[in-house]
Design a protein that fits this description.
The structure is a single chain. Helices cover 51% and strands 15% of the residues. It contains 15 helices and 11 strands. The strands form 3 sheets. It has a 5-stranded parallel β-sheet, with helices on both faces. Strands 1-2-5 form a 3-stranded antiparallel β-sheet, with no helix packed on it. Strands 4-3-6 form a 3-stranded antiparallel β-sheet.
Length: 446
């Protein structure tokens, strides 16, 4: 279904935004690790080897803790370039590194002082907690980190509701405060010089300010400015509903097609529950639209929202946007209700595009009439692929038949985890370069 030829997209930037952002994060962490090491050396080596190792691991743990805060601050510049899902994944991996670094700090320090005093390590730890200011706070902080690390393990995380997991995860901030006061009280490197003291205060201040700005100031400011409300609720099928949102000055909201918000609908029974839903239409400066499958209690309640209901939205979030295009041609692959961000992206695309919507049956092809109209007025080939999950109708031979030049296109993929994983395997088998493949997994972790 191709009709109108649109203008060619602008050439991609010489340096991809995601590469620049990742390099920036690695650079910040590496530079600060170097600075911490210099301050450690300047503080001197007047202790035994175990205590020295304990001090060094403690400093690196403090640095990792501050870096953790940056990863979950939801700063727009980072989020648009890397995506919340990847930042959250890094946060999780760094978190387990932080856990082991803190354990190493506690073990090395305890055994080091036990070696000097000839005390039993357990007695030594009790003695340190009772006689040295800040040590008891550090032990409590370590205990909180251990609890958070336990519930963040994959097996435990799958068994917990998001709200329960998030409540437990908030204790990380308590651990941060306790760890910082411990460092101020007993950290010899912290007080070794005026420069070291200024450095640590600046580091912790910047990390905490990032969280305050990204997680509190920006969301509150935007919601006070835009005053979002439900304008209409439109059933798309028996199981899918669209919610239209209106507000003030929406042309000043920095949202792009492909992004999502964390939506809170301020009803009596749902105000506390946040759900991530993508925009299902490109922002036009007047309204926003989300489309969701009413699968659980939270999403089923969307169908009963009343016009005028107040909305608190955090975002926009996500790197699933045209900012990351590298090629003039595009392939978009959606599975089921994963069509929603793809539907929005279509409105922003220039150049030729192929859109494949994979569903079990025609009745599951939500928003298909809109897609056909977009295909009619734009340079888009639209394919509706139906049938059960097996055999794979998007396996390498089938996808190569539908899109012979797939390796020359940017590919945007959104759908259920199983389908997304299968399509990614197919793209790798067909030789599509990694930099041309774009996908995003929703995650509220952190």
């Amino acid at each position: 279904m191709t009709t109108v030829q649109t203008t060619a997209p602008p050439p991609p930037p010489a340096l991809r935004p995601a590469v620049v952002a990742r390099a920036g994060l690695y650079g910040v962490l590496g530079l600060n690790a170097g600075v911490v090491t210099v301050f450690f050396v300047q503080a001197g080596f007047g202790s035994n080897a175990l205590i020295l190792l304990g001090r060094l691991t403690g400093l690196y743990a403090a640095l990792l803790m501050a870096f953790q805060l940056l990863l979950v601050a939801r700063l727009p510049w980072l989020d648009r370039r890397i995506g919340m899902d990847r930042l959250t994944s890094w946060h999780r991996r760094v978190g387990f590194g932080l856990l082991w670094t803190l354990l190493g700090h506690a073990v090395f320090i305890t055994f080091g002082y036990a070696e000097l005093s000839a005390m039993d390590p357990v007695d030594q730890l009790v003695d340190l907690a009772g006689t040295v200011e800040g040590v008891l706070r550090a032990i409590v902080a370590l205990g909180l980190i251990l609890v958070v690390g336990t519930v963040s393990a994959r097996l435990a995380r799958r068994r917990l509701a998001y709200e329960t997991w998030h409540f437990v995860h908030l204790y990380t901030y308590v651990a941060v405060v306790l760890a910082f006061t411990h460092q101020v009280a007993v950290g010899s490197t912290f007080t070794a010089s005026a420069a070291a003291t200024a450095y640590w205060y600046t580091l912790w201040g910047a990390a905490l300010a990032s969280v305050a700005v990204g997680r509190l100031v920006l969301p509150v400011r935007r919601n006070l400015r835009h005053r979002l409300r439900v304008a209409a609720v439109v059933p798309e099928s028996d199981t899918v509903v669209s919610v239209h949102i209106t507000g003030r000055d929406l042309d000043r909201l920095p949202a792009r097609a492909g992004q999502f918000f964390l939506w809170r609908f301020l009803t009596r029974d749902r105000w506390w529950q946040a759900n991530p839903f993508s925009l299902s239409a490109a922002p036009d400066g007047r309204t926003l639209r989300l489309t969701a499958k009413t699968a659980g209690d939270g999403t089923a309640a969307l169908r009963h929202l009343k016009a005028g209901t107040r909305v608190f939205a955090e975002g926009p979030y996500g790197a699933f946007t045209t900012l990351h295009r590298t090629r003039p041609g595009t392939l978009l692959v959606a599975g089921g209700v994963g069509i929603t961000p793809i539907r929005a992206l279509v409105e922003e695309l220039d150049g030729h595009a192929v859109l494949i919507h994979r569903v079990a049956g025609v009745e599951d092809a939500v928003l298909h009439d809109e897609l056909r109209e977009l295909a009619r007025t734009r340079d888009i080939e639209l394919h509706l692929v139906t049938g059960p999950a097996t055999p794979d109708r998007l396996a390498p031979p089938e996808l190569a038949r539908l899109v012979p030049d797939v390796a020359e296109r940017d590919v945007f993929v959104c759908g259920p985890p199983g389908m997304t994983a299968a399509v990614l395997r197919t793209l790798r088998a067909l030789g599509v370069p990694r930099k041309q493949i774009h996908f995003e997994r929703f995650s509220l972790a952190g």
